[in-house]
Every structure is written in C-alpha cells, then in structure tokens.
Amino acid sequence: MKISMKGKYAVRLMLDLAEHDFGEPVSLKDIAVRQEISEKYLEQVVSLLNKAGLVRSIRGPQGGYRLVRKPYDYKVGEILRMTESCFAKDGDGEEDASMILWNRIDDAVSSVIDTVTLEDLLTWQNENAYNYSI
Amino acid sequence: MKISMKGKYAVRLMLDLAEHDFGEPVSLKDIAVRQEISEKYLEQVVSLLNKAGLVRSIRGPQGGYRLVRKPYDYKVGEILRMTESCFAKDGDGEEDASMILWNRIDDAVSSVIDTVTLEDLLTWQNENAYNYSI
DNA sequence: ATATAACCTACGGATAAAGTAGGAAATAAA
DNA sequence: TTTATTTCCTACTTTATCCGTAGGTTATAT
Question: Which of A93, A133, B31, B33 lies 20 to 30 angstroms, CA to CA, from B92?
Fold first, then answer.
C-alpha cells in the first residue's frame, strides 16, 4: 500500500497537535521543525485539514493551530480521506462486474481507518518509544 | 478507494480470458471489442501481465492470449499489484511512528485481494446476471 | 508600529494515468 | 512463399497529482 507524503504529513501534523495540546495554539513553524517537514508544504496540507474543520486556526503572533476535538474523537480516516487521493471516494459508480470486489476492499480499508483514532496512534507511539528505551 | 482504469481493465481482461478459456487463444481485438476498451491501451496492460507470467501469448494469426492457470488459482492481488500503483509495495520502510497503522491497512487490503480469486469474480458476476434477469 | 503568524496564488520538476501512433517481428494459412 | 494476422516495442501527447518553492496579503498580540 503506497501512502503519499501528503497523507503521512497530515497524520504527523495531527499527532503533533495532539501531543502539544496545552491550550496554546501550536505554530506551523514549530511543527515543521519538530517533524522535519518543509513549513511551506505543511501550510498546504494543514489548509486542507482546516477547511475540513479538523483543526482551528488562530492568526497573528502566538497564533497557530489547535485540535477542535479530543484525540480519541478523530478517526484517522477523516484525516486520510482529506489528504490521500487513494482513500478518496471513487465517485463514478459504474456498476462494474467487479463492484463486489471494490466494495470489499473499501470495507476492509474502512474497517481500519474508521476505527483507529488519533489517540490510538499516540498510544502506539509511546509503547514503541518505551520498547526502544529499555 | 480509488481504483485506476488500468487496474480495472486488467481485471476485466483476465475475467474475459477466464470466460473464453476454451483451448484457443483469445485475441486482444476480441477482448477490446467485448469490453469496450481501446485495444492499443489494452496492449500495454496485457504486456504487464504477460511479463509477470500471468498470461501466455501466442503470436501470429489465430493468436492471442491464454491463462496459464485455472481461474481459482489466480488471486486478484496478483493482478492488481502489477497494474494498480496504489497496491504496489511501499518500498521505503522509514520506521514512521504510524507504521502500525500502515501495516494494519496493508493487512486489511491483503486479506481481501490475496483471498479473492478470478473464479470468485466469475461466480459473483453470474449471480449478479441472474438477479437482473428475473 | 512592528513582528508574528496564518492565508493565498502561482510556479516548477517529477511522476503517473490514459490513451494514440507507427512500425517490427513472428506465424498460420493461402 | 507471400500475405494477413496478431503480438510486441518504443515513443509521443495530454492531463493530473505529488512534492516542494516562492512571494505576497491579511489578521493580530505586544
């Protein structure tokens, strides 16, 4: 399964916001430095998430972005479907003979991305960090 | 889930070969007409399947293509991974924090496409034709 | 007033999708 | 042996998306 940088960046950005969710907005610059991602490119990614209402932006000094919900209230599917063209809706339902196949693949993917939350990712990340620090 | 034309054509081509598997090779021209796909484009698709050893080609008059195995011996994953860039191997395993997520998506997709066979597609297709003919 | 941020649009190279086009090589049949 | 058929191969177009760069505009906290 090929996942684009855009999709990966979007998830990392949301994860970063979740990890620094202390009331103050988090600037793109900080995220870009921490995640080692071009800030300019991140701008375009976060713009998609902003328009989708997944984050809230605050302009001006000390501004930045914040999550609008709690991490456990974000399914990663919401993030990926906004940013990863593979996971976008197929649109033209052309009643193909293999429709059942495409639907099964859809269902399989959805069963993962519409179940796993941002909080799950945080948990896994920390478990992993713990394992490596032994 | 967005599936490309190339991937869909590849499946339809293999299905067509399975349906006309009577010992004689099936020409691309016939398939192109039946499936209403540009023959020239089909050439390029079938070339991938040929190089992967999924079909056997016979040149010259009365030539064409044949399946090398029985329909139940083809997983659709074999076909799709050759033709659908979404399903290709990701290559660079960059030990991302969300690796667990990508692996789960991978597993979910594989559990479908490495299980469903060409024969399954034929069956579903016929069931569907039956339902519509009532 | 100023510096800090988000916001917006456009541009660039690279890659892939979805074809189109033209010919070369093999081969069965006349 | 010639001919028609069919696969095979390479190159080209057009459109779109990825990944990133660049430059400027607007809002706002200090």
Answer: A133
